[in-house]
Each structure stands twice: as structure tokens, then as C-alpha cells.
């Protein structure tokens, strides 16, 4: 039985391909040469939307009120001699787009169509597959009858199920291997490409695309697949091994990136190794020269080990403090939401009780024949409404006071945690500076001693020319050592400032948002109460007891 992919193909893309297959590229080019090219503009889009929208009375109403492009799900722009794709950015909810039978030369301006599932670009003049990265939901793609010579740049289309690229210029069987990454691909059309003339074409694709169900409108037979797997067994096994290794590396990379993101939230990314130390020397042009001084390699190794140990201590401490801050934030929002829920439930209970006690009271007052009794009952009901208003407002003010206290406690607690973190972080960074200062003193001492030996012609070791140039006089070598030292200190200072700034900004931003959200919540609740009370009172405005 044909699968859903084949059904869509037969109802959509393949129908266009079959009915227009008699047209050759040169014929189409001559056809379009006689017509002025178009660019997608507002007028064309509006007309297309109206033509494809509701007709008769509903259509007139839609045309009068205007159709919001954001509400359009399908758009048909075929046979309009379009040269350039443009101005589709408003169609953010579009799921189906037909741009076939135009003279489009480049795939572009589709980035906003992130919900697109079905795209037809057949019968155009496209030479390169590009501009489709944002269409991650795409399932059905037709590039039939274009000028494409390579299948590429489709990596993000992992939902792709149906792909038509017949009548192009695909030459090599090896290009088919690219399609292995599309695990959902079930239907493929390549008819009319030079690659189809290869006698191994069908068998090659059956072997390398094992999940493919339909190839060039035909079911891939099981016996063909079995023969293909036997023929290409060793090549496929080798390829699978390579794919497994690549997948493992990709997963490791993604895991590392995820890990780094978690470290960033703790402000200690890349401090679990020698990254900071290495960056100090990567931007130090003098370091590569000073390493040639006697005793410096061993001195540098000791310095690096101690420096990295401090960085790791800071890293572990940062993660621990991050957990404490996140726990505090979690407790705060738990208390906040609990208070809001309790208040909401109490408010709902009060309103339900009021409505239950006063069910049908307006009709009852209206039906009273005694005006004095009716007015008395109306006064009593008004007093109950006022009491309800006061009760709800009191409940809201109690919540405001309660949340104000909770927020103050949270501000104090989180500020203490951040302050302690920054204080200890500064202490550890100070240790890094102390190590750098100590290393600088030792390095300067070695440099001066080396200079004295060179002056006295007592230095016999080989030295590169650019290093020897540092020892022309004392000022030159001292300046070089000091410049190296300044770069290292600047790196340490910048990293410290970065940690402090991020920690403070995160908390200040969070607290500011909490206050803004509470102000917005309070105003919305007060407005809600007033609107409800006004609604109740409006029912009384329709009563006219005096006329009875």
C-alpha cells in the first residue's frame, strides 16, 4: 500500500511535474523572454490572497475588512513570471507555498516562513540550492525542472519526507549519499537527471538510502534492496562506521556546548582548565621570546600549575554558589505562586458565595409590586455589592503586603548570596594576581641576570635573534618583561570584572522583573475587580422601579 508521502506526491508536486513534463528548459526560457519579469509586491500578494480566500458574501466581507497576511496558511504564486522572491516576511504562519512555473533564479527571502511544510519551486531557473535553512518543518519540497547540479544545503530540513529534484543536472551517484542524513525521507524523484543514465543508479540508491519507499514514482522492491545491500555491503559498513564516529563526535560537541552554557549561568565558563592562563599568553607577544631565558620554562610550568589550580577552585566554588542561588530563586517563586494561588482561590470562593446568595435577585426585585419593598431590597443589594468590593480589595491589599514582604526577604537573601560569591571570587582572583606578581619578579630577576652575563660575554647559550634584540640595554628587556606582566594582569582583571558584572546584572535584572510583574499583576487585579463590580451594578441600572 502506498504511504502518506506517496499520496501527497500524487496529489501535489508530482501532478505538476507530470502535466508539464513536456516543456523543456529552452522552451520555457523563450516563453518567459517574451513577458516582462515580476517581483513579488504588496499588490500581487493581496490579489493572490483574495483570489484564494473565501468567495461570494464571505469574500466581499473579507476584502472589505482586509485579510491579515499572518492568518494565511496557503499561498499560490505560480505562473506569475516572478523573477525574485521578496516581501513574504508577514506570512509567518504559512504552511504551503507554491512558486512553481516562474523564472526565479535564486532561493531567498524565505527565512520568516518557519512553519512552512510544503514548498513548490518547480519549473524555475534555480541553479543552487540555498536559503532554506530556516524551514525546519518542511516535509515536502519540489525543485523539479530547474538547473541544479548538486544536492546540498538542506542539512536543517530533518523533517523532509518528499523530495522532487527531477529534470535538473545532477551528475554523480556519490551526491546521493548526502540524502542519507534525512531519516524521514520516503519519496524521491530524480527522473530526467544525467545520473539516472548510470546503469547502477537504482541499485545504488536502494543500497545507500535504505529507508526510501518510492523512487521515481515506483516502489523500491525488496529484492532490489537485498541485491543492492549485498553488492555495496562493505562500502556501506565502512560508511556506517564513519557516520557512527561522526555522530559520536557531534554528540560530544553538543554535550560540551550544553555544559558550557550551564557554566556560563554560573559565570565560571572555561575556568575548569587552563583557558584563562593560555589566553593571557596567547595575547602576549613577548612571551614567546622570554621563554628562551634560562630557567623560564620550568618557572612557567610551576606558575601555570598553581594558576590553574586556583581557577579550578573558583570553578567548583562558582558551581556550588550557583546551585544555592538557583535553590533560593526556586523557593522564592514557589512561595510567590503559592500565595497567588491561595489568594485566587479565596477570591473565587467569595465571588461564588456572593453569586449563589444573590442568584436571580435582579429579576426578583424587578418583579416586586411594592415599590418601597423593592427600593429597600435594592439598597440592601447595593450594600452587599459594596461589601463584596471592599472584601475583594482588602484581600488584594493583604496579598500585596504579603508579597512585598516575601520579595524583600528574597532580595535580602539573594543579595547576600551574590555578595558572598563576589567576595570569595575576588579573593581567588587576588591569588591569581599574586602568582602573576611573583612570577613577574622571578622573570625580571632572570632577565637582569641574563643581561649582565651577556654584557660580560659570559652567556654561551644559543638565542634567537629577536630574543637577543631584547638585550641591547636594560630598558629594553625591562620594558618587555613589564609589558608581558601588564597584559597578564589586564586579562585577570577583565575576567574578574566580567564575573562581577554578570552576577550583579543577573540578580538586578531578576529583581527588577519581579517588581514589574507584581505591579502589573496588582493593577490587572484591581482593574478586574472594578470591572466585575461595574458589571454587577450595570444590571441594576436597567431596573426602573419607579415606573411600576
From TrEMBL:
Q: Does the keyword Protein biosynthesis apply?
A: no
Please list the coiled coil stretches: 337-420
Return the GO cellular component terms, semicolon-separated. Answer: cilium
Presence of keyword Coiled coil: yes
Query: Which InterPro entries would you find in this protein's record?
Result: Cilia_flagella_integrity, Leu-rich_rpt, LRR_dom_sf
Write the record's keywords in alphabetical order, separated by commas: Cell projection, Cilium, Coiled coil, Cytoplasm, Cytoskeleton, Flagellum, Leucine-rich repeat, Repeat, Signal
Q: Where is the signal peptide?
A: 1-29
Which coarse location class describes where this protein primarily resides?
cytoplasm
Compartments, record wording: Cytoplasm, Cytoskeleton, Flagellum axoneme
Tell me its family: Belongs to the DRC3 family.
Instruction: Supply the name of the protein.
Output: Dynein regulatory complex subunit 3
